[in-house]
Design a protein that fits this description.
The chain is an alpha/beta fold. The protein is 51% helix and 12% strand. The chain has helices at 3-20, 49-57, 61-72, 95-108, 138-156, 172-185, 198-210, 219-244, 255-260, 263-273, 308-321, 337-348, 385-402, 414-418, 425-446, 461-483, 487-506, 519-541; strands spanning 45-47, 78-84, 88-93, 122-126, 160-167, 251-254, 277-280, 283-286, 297-300, 326-331, 356-360, 364-368, 371-373, 410-413. A five-stranded parallel β-sheet has the order 6-5-4-10-11, with helices on both faces. Helix 5 (138-156) links the parallel strand 4 and strand 5 (160-167).
């Protein structure tokens, strides 16, 4: 019986108890909270439902808890139900009911943890979207790892997810990038507002190799040629880097297409028609403050050029017009202002602003000898995705970036993430999986199977801890999806690995040399196999491999 199953049982029982006493059962919450007590002596699970609703239903909390405990104790799945304090109900599951968690994991395999909680949601998940003016730096690498993991978690919860990269090929940064390429090709210094670094020299040289006459012609035509070829080359490098990192997108959306297709003008026309665009001081302004932004925003500047937000407005409309009912933007630490303006833009266009979510990610620091390595795309001292992977590997890079909440900064210590020890979180979890695979191989040699195991034999404290941890995985996944927090999966698998290692130290899984296999060995092997499956499922959700040997 998983925590979700127990939650439903408590609710059903509470409904019956209240109805029998002609009390109001409508006060019960949709989902009854079930938690594991800090002290195992207090039972396997505890619920404070009596404290939550008794008075609303017309009863004393402890009295209601007593009724509930007595009724729960009649269920075969409950070994014991006791009252604690002012109205807590502590519950201990019957061994067979607890063992059903193991059976459920083995039945569902790689599907264990999945649900249809977000069925019907069509989510546009935009992440990375780094400008094609240089390699992906650590901030973009964090979004690559977190965004890909979040997409997996949302899909595991039943959502249909479109992973999208917004390809910025329009505007001032692209023009500066083009000027930097031209300057390098001409052997001139990097422009004051341009981009430097070896990648600029490499791309400029590649353009000249492809078209030896690229520098011939009017300056504007030369810059346009370098812009077009340079952006394509840079973006191909970005896509290849992401693919090697295990991240691929369903859609690469070109910002320039919003202008070429007339989408920007159509969005502006809509805003004019519904009076959410007004003229002042020679410019056209979005009534953003009206919809919760901190100020109105210029959409068309006084010189007639579009402000950057014009493309953002059209892009919001395009996401919903393609059939998505939720748009999630994953943006960098310097984009806090985008939360209000994107939601305001959506509402001004007639869409529900609640269907626009903006996640802001904080900075990443790479530590060397205890000191952060600085990066600057323009100065050419960028710490790139490739640099991080070369230093700590793909699994280490992804895991180190996913395991912390995005609203906190991350310090990646090179010594920690390359250590083959329990101090290295990804090594610790992967070692747990490899150890479980080794147990499976040894079991095959000894002829121990899991055919029809008696899971009711799993009554040791450490067995119970491990089983209950396995049972929490579906709820962890559901919460990670609901809160957009894939780091919960990483933290969970670390806890699961630790719980397994404690079980391994206390419980003999396989018979010793010369001993015959007993039913307890089959039961424990089933528990070990279920643990291996859940570790693998969790690692897969964060995009990290589950090695069978280490």
């Amino acid at each position: 019986m998983t925590p979700a199953d127990l939650s439903q049982l408590i609710k059903d029982t509470a409904t019956t108890v209240l109805a029998q006493r002609e009390l109001d059962a409508s006060v019960l919450p949709e989902v009854v909270t079930v938690e594991r007590p800090r002290n195992p002596k207090h039972g396997d699970y505890a619920s404070n439902i009596a404290l939550q609703v008794a008075k609303k239903a017309g009863a004393n909390p402890r009295e209601f808890a007593t009724w509930l405990a007595e009724a729960l104790a009649q269920n075969a799945a409950i070994d014991e139900a006791e009252i604690a304090g002012p109205g807590f109900v502590n519950i201990r599951l019957a061994a067979d009911a607890q063992g059903e968690i193991v059976a459920k994991v083995l039945r569902e395999g790689q599907e264990y943890g999945n649900s249809d909680a977000l069925h019907g949601q069509r989510i546009n998940l935009e992440f990375v979207s780094a400008n094609p003016t240089g390699p992906i730096h650590l901030g973009g690498t964090r979004w690559a790892a977190v965004g890909d993991s979040l997409g997996r978690v949302l899909e595991a919860s039943g959502a249909e997810v479109t992973r999208e990269y917004y390809f910025n090929d329009h505007g001032g940064q692209i023009n500066r990038f083009a000027r930097s390429l031209v300057a390098d090709a001409q052997g001139e210094p990097t422009p004051e507002d341009g981009y430097g670094g070896s990648y600029i020299h490499e791309i400029a040289a590649a353009i000249m190799d492809k078209d030896p006459s690229a520098l011939t012609g009017e300056p504007a035509a030369v810059q346009e040629k370098f812009r077009a070829l340079g952006v394509d080359m840079m973006f191909e490098q970005i896509k290849n880097s992401l693919k090697e990192f295990g991240v691929e997108f369903d859609v690469y959306f070109h910002e320039n297409s919003l202008y070429e297709s007339g989408a920007v003008e159509r969005a502006i026309s809509t805003l004019r028609d519904n009076d959410n665009l007004y003229e002042a001081d020679g410019a056209w302004w979005l009534r953003a403050e009206k919809f919760g932004d901190d100020k109105d925003r210029v959409v068309i500047k006084s010189d007639g050029d579009h402000a950057y937000i014009a493309g953002d407005i059209a892009y919001v409309a395009d996401k919903f017009d393609r059939g998505h009912n939720l748009a999630i933007y994953m943006l960098g630490a310097d984009h806090h202002g985008y939360i209000g303006r994107l939601r305001a833009a959506a509402q001004a266009l007639g869409y529900d602003p609640e269907n626009v979510e903006v996640l802001i990610g904080q900075l990443v620091n790479l530590l060397r000898d205890g000191k952060p390595v600085r990066m600057s795309k323009r100065a050419g001292t960028v710490i790139t995705l490739e640099d991080l992977v070369e230093a700590i590997g793909i699994d280490g890079a992804r895991y180190s970036l996913v395991r912390s909440s995005v609203d906190t900064s991350v310090d990646i210590d090179l010594a920690l993430w390359t250590a083959q020890s329990a101090d290295n979180p990804v090594y610790y979890v992967q070692y747990g999986h490899a150890r479980l695979c080794s147990i499976e191989r040894k079991a095959a040699e000894l002829g121990v199977s899991v055919d029809d195991p008696d899971l009711g034999m799993l009554v040791h404290d450490k067995e119970g801890d491990l089983i209950r941890t396995l049972g929490e995985f579906p709820e962890v996944v559901a919460t990670a999806a609901q809160l957009r927090e894939p780091h919960r999966i990483a933290r969970y698998v670390e806890d699961l690995a630790a719980t397994f290692h404690r079980f391994y130290d206390q419980c003999q899984i396989l018979p010793k040399a010369g001993e015959q296999a007993e039913p307890i060995h089959s039961a424990r092997l089933a528990l070990a196999r279920a643990t291996r499956q859940v570790l693998r499922n969790g690692l897969t959700m964060v995009g990290v491999s589950a090695p069978e040997r280490m």
